[in-house]
Amino acid sequence: MKRVLLIIGGGIAAYKCLDLIRRLRERGHHVRCVMTKATQEFVTPLSVGAISNEPVATDLFDLDAEREIGHIRMAREADLVVVAPATADLLARMAQGHANDLATAVLLATRATVLAAPAMNPAMWSHAATRRNVRQLETDGVKFIGPNTGEMAEAGEAGVGRMAEVAELVERIETLLAGDDETGRGLGFITVSSKRERAVAPLPLAGRHVLVTSGPTHEPIDPVRYIANRSSGKQGHAIAAAARRLGARVTLISGPVQIPDPEGVEVRHVETAREMLEAVEAALPADVAIFAAAVADWRVATPGRGKLKKAAGAAPPQLELVENPDILRTVAKRGARRPELVIGFAAETQTVVENAQGKRKSKGVDWIVANDVSEESGVFGGERNRVHLVTASGVEDWPDMSKDEVADVLLRRVSAYLAESRESV
Ligand code: PMT
User: Fold this and answer.
1) Comparing 3-195 with 209-301+316-424, is the CATH topology the same?
2) Which of 71, 107, 163, 415 has the highest local Cβ count within 10 Å?
3) pLDDT digits (tens, 9 = 90+) for 189-213
4) pTM given for the model
């Protein structure tokens, strides 16, 4: 019998904990629960106590409970501490090392592995503060499961933020209790903790080189004018940052953008498609190449050496266009030094998925991330994206998410793909 200490956070997903307790007890585990003040707005200590068949601890200053067990002992006796749902507030307090209520005091006092199952609104999950807190907790040895992508409790909201399902939680808890958990799953899960000792395990993309293209290209007409498009680089840069968070060495080849370089990433700034191709070739070999740049399909055959002059009464200049090299196709179809996984984007305004499927085949790409870039979608330059992942096995329609979330989910898929292909070798 193992002792699981379940800290139930104050979120709508708290109700799932009743089922979680039941499933853990069915497997013979002893489950002791701690509830915060906020949790009691969602489920009652009475129902949690009845299902766990144990008194529920709610108050740091409850003399009876302290006499009976004491929060330090409760923290020490657990084989595993599970925080579910781990709300944004609870994660923030954990990251800061607060100990002003029973839940945080126990978390600070425990030497057991801590598994957090975040659940919150997608905007809160993708907020810089939450990301910072998750990174800190990962560094501190906390393990994470989820959150998953899907519908939220708030009507019409979807994205990354749903708490992991009970079955997933039970499976992960069993693995942790068995001491078999080597790698993390979900969005963060970087560290491995044994029962008494915490050691930093490699991040899922550690040792991998990920190459990303991002932003538009500028194709000169003359020294002062150019052909461009509306790409801001937000999606590509988010992908580079997500790959870095998972431990990859990342090379980002960026067209001209107004956003800062992601931290910890090697960035090469280029202007034209031909410069981008050259920089991509120079950055190879890579394990994964992700082409999110909006590369101009054409360039002006002979850009003016000096500024093209407007002469009174003269006809406007005729621009002769020639095709630019297709960087994605060049890399995907190369024999030597082809990355193991080549991912293109497809920017479409109609029949998005069908066109993307065609591009996947014609360019020889493994996966295509298709997005609707019609004016109404607001994807070019915007903060959000709704993509379809097109692979050889079919099409997945992902919900509307922030570009950071799209990047996180995509890189999680990349990590899983590489891990599977490594296992099958
Ligand atoms: O930058 P944001 O404002 O955040 O917007 C994000 C985005 C809309 C630019 C991004 O999500 C996206 O869709 N990027 C791909 C844009 C594009 O050029 O799509 P395409 O369907 O024209 O090209 C297909 C693929 O071939 C792309 O991976 C592209 O990078 C690549 N390509 C295209 C032409 C070319 N000459 N070389 C290429 O490598």
Assistant:
1) yes
2) 163
3) 333 344 333 344 468 899 999 999 9
4) 0.64
